[in-house]
Amino acid sequence: MDVDISPDAWTNRETSLSPDFVTVGQGVEEHLQHPQLWFEDGNVLVISRNVWFKLHRGILSRFSSVFRDMFQLADADAGHHIQHCPAVDVTDDPAHLHLFFTLLYDGGRHPFLLDPHWPMEFGDARGVVLLASKYDVQHLRTEALRRLE
After folding, report:
1. In angstroms, what CA-CA distances link 136 with 3, 28, 86, 100, 117?
2. Statement: the pTM of the whole predicted model exceeds 0.85
3. What's the rounded Cα separation, in Å, for the pair 99 and 88?
């Protein structure tokens, strides 16, 4: 899947980052996902409510000690698997998770981290602070707190 995440790709976006989830699957496998956060080579599912994110365990572990510990516990418990991937259930708001994971994956290319004046809704900044605090992602927490001040 080709996704343009260059800074220029964000110039025409709305300031609200509400995700465009799509429904996939049937029966008990029916769920919502966002195409930009569903990687075919992903090796872990993060599930919030009925929204699935297929991500990379190594990337989440690199930036978050909480995810790293969560994955180690899942290995020890031989946690549940869906579609041949270990699955981790979380209780966070899926829209805020979408923004949080987008910021983790886009890193320094996202205007949130590049442009201190890039407009962001209060609720989105608050969601990033809460998730970055919960999952111990200091660089996102620091920037989101700066924006809230």
Report:
1. 27, 32, 21, 12, 24
2. no
3. 18
In a domain, 19, yes or no: no
Q: Which of 127, 144, 124, 142 is nearest to 17 (CA)?
A: 124
Alpha-carbon Rg of the chain, whole angstroms? 15
Strands 22-24 and 31-33: antiparallel
Do residues 147 and 125 make contact, with C-beta atoms less than 8 angstroms apart? yes
- Phi-psi domain of 61 (left: phi exceeds 0; alpha: psi -120 through 50; beta: other): alpha
CA dist., res. 35 & res. 5, Å (int) = 13
* Full domain range(s) for residue 48: 32-146
What is the mean pLDDT for each group of 10 consecutive residues in the chain (149 residues)?
A: 36 45 69 85 90 93 92 67 83 91 84 77 89 94 84
Q: What is the CATH number of the domain that holds 36?
A: 3.30.710.10
